[in-house]
Design goal:
Layout (H helix, E strand, L loop, with lengths): L8 E6 L7 H14 L3 E5 L3 H6 L2 E3 L27 H14 L3 E6 L1 H14 L2 E6 L15 H22 L2 E6 L6 H9 L4 E3 L7 H13 L5 E6 L7 H11 L5 E5 L11 H19 L5 E6 L2 E6 H6 L6 H10 L2
Parallel strand pairs: 1-2, 1-4, 4-5, 5-10, 6-8, 6-9, 7-8
Antiparallel strand pairs: 2-3, 10-11
């Protein structure tokens, strides 16, 4: 594969919120680069490492025994300095000094925005790999980390259901998803939630109360309501309080799953996805792709302009919303 032999050295970084499978993606990038005879630098702590020249030369043995590990061995950070022109100039100077021809940036929206600006200002070729548990990046059917986070949420809610059933309680369970309800919707369906509150849909307290009334008539004595953290109806504690006012007889509890959804060993699906995207990123760069994100669409590697990946968002499946309502009866 010699179409673009101008690329001799790549840099790879993980940035923004960590996601299970980032290490698997890094491993795939480093080993695919080695296979094609490219030099590879790992950049620590995202764009901060590029500014501070905190880099290490990486080869196939540098990434042994990491495919199963959560988090990122390169560490991640959000870089305020990289938001400034002076910070990006430092990063560019370090790239030139190291001979880096292209950057592979593993992360989400913020990571890709930084990569896009860096390319536009300095001409360094960039390739994005979508690593975020929220699954809200356009240009890929799934993002790295989403499947693992979903399974973590499902397992936690299953355990909560045992307590809810034992005590005839109503549990409001908050899952991650500041701007996207993918984890809430899918974990809610998977755990038999009676209602799912997500930012993509206009929910009302009246609709929620109607759901509880229907559940009571159906003879349900314990209920789970899954709430995305970005739900516009309000804070989960406020929603629970309003429900207690409307149904004083309910024994209500709130559980916030929080950062346990980010951690843990990546699932098989995330390891394979990360491996394919890491490979696809190197191959794409060698074929001349630039300022794009490597994604998986209909089980095939696809490249989407970073600008599109940032501007558009994956949309919630309307069928799944209907299914969640029907199956909660």
């Amino acid at each position: 594969m010699t179409e673009h032999s101008s690329i001799k050295t790549i840099g790879v970084l993980t940035s923004g919120g960590d996601a299970p499978g980032m290490n698997a993606a890094l491993r795939a990038v480093v080993r695919t680069a080695a296979y094609f005879g490219l030099d590879c630098f790992g950049i620590r702590e995202g764009y901060n490492g590029l500014i501070q020249n905190d880099v290490l030369k990486m080869g196939p043995r540098s990434v042994k025994n990491i495919i199963h590990r959560g988090g990122t061995i390169l560490k991640s950070a959000r870089s305020e300095e990289f938001r400034t022109k002076a910070g990006r100039q430092k990063a560019y100077d370090n790239c030139k000094a190291l001979g880096i021809d292209a950057l592979i940036c593993i992360g989400g929206d913020g990571t890709f925005h930084g990569a896009k600006v860096f390319y536009e200002e300095f001409g360094i070729r960039v390739m994005g790999i979508p690593g975020t548990i929220d699954n809200d990046i356009f240009g890929t059917d799934q993002t790295i980390g989403y499947d693992t986070a979903l399974n973590t949420a499902m397992e936690a809610i299953d355990k909560i259901r045992d307590t809810a059933t034992s005590h005839n309680r109503v549990f409001f369970v908050e899952v991650m998803g500041r701007d996207a309800g993918f984890i809430a919707l899918n974990s809610g369906i998977a755990t038999g939630a009676i209602d799912i509150l997500i930012p993509e849909r206009k929910d009302s307290i009246e609709d929620l109360f109607a759901t509880f009334e229907k559940a009571e008539k159906a003879g349900k004595t314990a209920s789970i309501v899954v709430v995305a953290e970005g739900e516009e109806l309000g804070n989960i504690y406020d929603i629970a309080k309003a429900t207690k006012n409307g149904f004083p007889e309910f024994d209500i509890r709130v559980a916030v799953l929080g950062h346990i959804q980010r951690g843990g060993s990546p699932s098989c699906a995330d390891r394979v996805l990360a491996s394919r995207l890491g490979y696809g990123a190197i191959v794409g760069l060698m074929k001349g792709e630039n300022a794009v994100m490597t994604g998986m669409i209909s089980n095939k590697i696809a490249y989407t302009p970073i600008e599109e990946a940032i501007k558009k968002h994956n949309e919630i499946d309307k069928d799944l919303l209907k299914i969640s309502e029907i199956l909660a009866l």
